Amino acid sequence: MVLFLLPFCAVGIVTSVMALREVTSSPPQWGQAGFLLIFSLVFGGAGFGMLFLLFRGRRKQSQVELLKRLHPDAPWMWTPEWASGHILCSSRKTVLVAWVFTAFWNLISAPLVILQFPEALRDEGPVALLILIFPLVGLFML
Q1: C-alpha Rg value of the chain to the nearest Å
Q2: Picking from 8-22, 44-58, 67-81, 115-129, which range would have the lowest pLDDT averaged per residue?
Q3: Cβ(40)–Cβ(104) under 8 Å?
Q4: What SS3 class is residue 142?
Q5: What's the count of helices (H) and strands (E) in the chain, helices before strands?
């Protein structure tokens, strides 16, 4: 899994450097830099975010394995929440994941519409309206 995620991290870093170069060029290319920065945030965010979750999950799994060895005949003791008798609501995490996904969706679809829609409308005509499906889904998710 780490080998799969490393290219995403690398693309995020490389496109960040490319965006920085576009900003520092003479004259600054703000549109290209913005596009590269969004690309960097999406790929780098996915790569580094998933790596973080992967390592966090491994740590939690090792804790569960330790609890299984300590309490082999008491499966309710394998989960820290059950063992303590205090279970927290998980809806906060669910809402956070939904907001993060929505933000990524809109970060990807907004530049598509802003940068490509006028040109596609001139060249493709009504077929270009299909591009609007993605930001409409993003608005619905918001």
Answers
A1: 22
A2: 115-129
A3: no
A4: coil
A5: 6, 0
Q: What is the pLDDT of residue 29?
A: 87
pLDDT in tens, 82-134: 777 777 777 888 888 899 999 988 888 887 777 777 777 777 777 777 778 88
Q: CA dist 104 to 19, 43, 56, 74, Å?
A: 18, 10, 22, 42
The pLDDT of residue 20 is 93
Query: For residues 110 and 135, what is the distance between their CA atoms, to the nearest angstrom?
Result: 6
Distance between CA atoms of residues 100 and 80, nearest Å: 27
pLDDT in the model for residue 8: 94
* Residue written as token pair 């994941």: 97
Neighbours of 65 (CB within 10 A): 11
For the whole model, what pTM was predicted? 0.56
**DSSP letters for 47-104:** HHHHHHHHHHHHHHHHHHHHHHHH-TT-GGGGSHHHHHT-----HHHHHHHHHHHHHH
Two tokens, residue 14: 């490389």
Residue tagged 């998710």 (tokens): 141
